[in-house]
Each structure stands twice: as C-alpha cells, then as structure tokens.
Amino acid sequence: MAFRFNTRRICTGKLWSPPTSLNGSRTSKVTPGWQRCRSVASTASAEKVLFPGALNSEFTDTLEFIRPANQKAIPTFRVLNQYGEVLDKEAGVDTEDGEALELYQNMVRLSIFDLLMFEAQRQGRLSFYMVSAGEEGIAIGSASALSPTDVVFCQYRESGVYMQRGFTLDQFMNQLFANSKDAGLGRNMPVHYGSKELNIHTISSTLATQLPHAAGAAYALKLQNQQQPEVPPRVAVCFFGEGAASEGDFHAALNIAATRQVPAIFICRNNGYAISTPTSDQYRGDGIASRAAGYGIDTLRVDGNDIFAVRRATKEARRLALEDGGRPILIEMMAYRVGHHSTSDDSFAYRQKVEVEDWKRRDNPITRLRKWLEGRGLWSEAQEKDLRSSSRKEVLKAFEKAEKEKLPPIKHAFSGVYEHLTQEQRMHVVELKDILKRYPKEYDVDQHEGGASSLDQLLDEKR
C-alpha cells in the first residue's frame, strides 16, 4: 500500500490564468480572490481557511455569531431630496434639461393613462387593470438609461418601461381590449404586454418566472457578446417586486447568474406590499439588496422616487454588467405602492387610507421632478395644465378607437400551437363549427373578425 505525504496545493493570484475565448485569444476576465481555486488543501501554518466553500475566511478563536440586527442597513442612494434639490452640486443630475422634460411628460402621461384605465375597468369596459402609481420613476427612469437593444423581462407593473421604449397608446389599448389588432392575438389577459420589436418579452402572470428566464437570456447574450465583438454588447434586464423575491425562482436565478457571471441587471421594485402582505411579514432581513451580496452579486439600494438616482444607478449597473466579460448586478428600488395591487384588490382592507394619502402628499417621483423643473424655470402651471389636458385626450382617443375594433378571429384559439393542425385539432374545429351553427343565439360570432368563416380557413390549410 502506498502513501503520499505532505501533498500541498497553494492558490495564488499569480497561478490563475484567464480563460480562453472561442477564437483562441485570452479574455480579460478578472475573478475575485474569494472565488478562485475551489479545491485547495490548507497548509499547516495557514492564517485563512482554504476550504472550497469559504475561501479567504480568516481563522479566529472568538466564538461570535453575526447578528444582522447589529449591522447598519444598506444606505439608499439619491440625487434629489424630496424638495427637488440636488444634493451633490458638483455631480449634478447627469441629465440634460430637454431629456428631463421628456421624462417628466412620460411620467405624467403614464399616471393619466393608469387613472383612465382604472376608471374604465370600474365601468365594466375593461376586465382587469394594474396601475403604477408611486412607481412611475422606477420604470421610466431605468428604461431611459438602457440601450434599445437590451433584452427586457418585465413583471406586470412596468407599463412605463414599454412607454419609454416606444410602445404606442394604440398598442397598449389593443392589448387591453384583446381585439383583432392585438399582437398577442387576444390570448393574454390585460396588462400582459409584449413586443419583439422593442426587445421586451411578453409578461406572464406566474410570479417570478421571468427571473430565471432573464438569467438564461443573459448567459446567451454573454456568448453572443464574445462571439460577435463587432456588435455592441447587450445585457438582460429583469424587473420584479419584492414579493417575487420570496419565490424559489428568485434564488435560482441569482445563483446561476452569479456562478455563470452573466451580464444581467435585476431591478427589484420594493413598494412595501406583496398584494396584501407588508414587507414586515415577508422578510426579517435588510430588504432584497442584502440577498444579492450573499450570492456574490454587486448590489445597490436606490430611492425610487428620485428618477435621476434611478437613471444614474441603471447606467452604472449596465457598465458594470458588461465589464470583464459580464457579471450580474442587483438594484433595489425603494418606493411606495400608492394604488391598489390591481382592480381585483381593495388595499384599504389591509392598510389605512391615511397612510396612502400621506405618501401621496409627502413624496412621489412626479412631484419631486416637477419641483426640480420649476426650480430651474423649465416648467409652469400653464404647461402642466396643457400636458394633462392633451394627454387625457390622446388616451381617450386611443381607447375609443380600440374599443370599436372587432375581436380576433376564432381560428386563433387553435392556430400557432403546431406548425400544422393535428388530426385531433381538426376534430375540435369541426365540433366547434357544429356547435356555433346549432346555437347561433347563444354565440355571437359576428363580434369576431371573419366570424365563423375563419374556422373554414383553418380547415382549408394544407396538412
């Protein structure tokens, strides 16, 4: 029997070499010291633990548990205070006056759009809606700092992301009414937008599923960025609420993003409530930003009511996400959900109305930016009235137009599942035709584009 004695392997920065890219050249990726050499034996005189699972942890003879309650909370970055005053005069707001005006106008339009759609649902003209009140600055501010080519995954309160990237009022309305001009062919419930042209994946109601999707997309983008150096690099951006961070998908996504070092930006809207569950019942730790640090991910907490802080944080996050081949970044945007969770929710059943009114009066992203604009002489009460009046007219015009459109052809209930209709599907189509023919008074097919004849088109297609 043979024995091997004194086998030692030491890991130093000098021994680490960068990985080789697909074309054979060396990449410039720099791996953190605590992440290098996962299988290392400790020396007898080592001052640090070299276990693969906890590199560079120093030895100690003091038994002391880390108590989060004794640690300082992660600070919240802001550029403007609640009075619209710049805190760091030297750094400024990093936004041109004209661009700031455009951002403000978009936030106002979004708030008016939300208000009118909420009222439309209460009138029975829409089946469902979700507002962005109190969170307009997060969506519009972050979207304005991204590249149009970046791939975006939204949750369901990011209408401002769509608006800032160019989604038109007509496109919003067509989706809300699920009419014949809806790009989703009427297959999704309201506010579940999607746009291939704007590089935004279609929203899903299933909570947190967009997080692992974004991590996977970011891994694909990492490979594309390496293989196509002549093309401007892209990142994947994922929006989610603090409630979604309680799902297992959140942890799986952050872990795979960290271990694969993918160019992803995870933006958490921490608005205080996961439907009716307040943050005090959701978690005991220091918000969501603290969790990213545990996964080895760079993280930042930002005042979501400060659109300039949101923009600056997103710009820097994008730069860091593309650095050294790619790495994930998490930004926790702090806000307060002024509106109900959705039109299916009555938030006053679980929170006091005075609490909501206090937030409306005290601080929100629209009023804070308006104070800054007025302080620079860029905005007036007359301009405010004109903007609100014109925005209301534009929204109502698009609403009335979309409401008059017919519903999508009935054939879309079957199309798009397989390349061609299966035999079983054909049987279903024939059966549906027979039912519609026998019970014409029960089924108003004329409200659908093409009526029942669209089913004949489906059956006439080549097998």
TrEMBL record:
Localization, UniProt: Mitochondrion matrix
Gene Ontology biological process terms, A to Z: branched-chain amino acid catabolic process
Predominant localisation class: mitochondrion
SUPFAM superfamilies on file: Thiamin diphosphate-binding fold (THDP-binding) (SSF52518)
Gene3D superfamilies: 3.40.50.970
InterPro entries xrefs: Alpha-ketoacid_DH_E1_comp, DH_E1, THDP-binding
Entry keywords, A to Z: Metal-binding, Mitochondrion, Oxidoreductase, Potassium, Thiamine pyrophosphate, Transit peptide
Known function: The branched-chain alpha-keto dehydrogenase complex catalyzes the overall conversion of alpha-keto acids to acyl-CoA and CO(2). It contains multiple copies of three enzymatic components: branched-chain alpha-keto acid decarboxylase (E1), lipoamide acyltransferase (E2) and lipoamide dehydrogenase (E3).
Annotated family: Belongs to the BCKDHA family.
Entry protein name: 2-oxoisovalerate dehydrogenase subunit alpha
Lineage: Eukaryota, Fungi, Dikarya, Ascomycota, Pezizomycotina
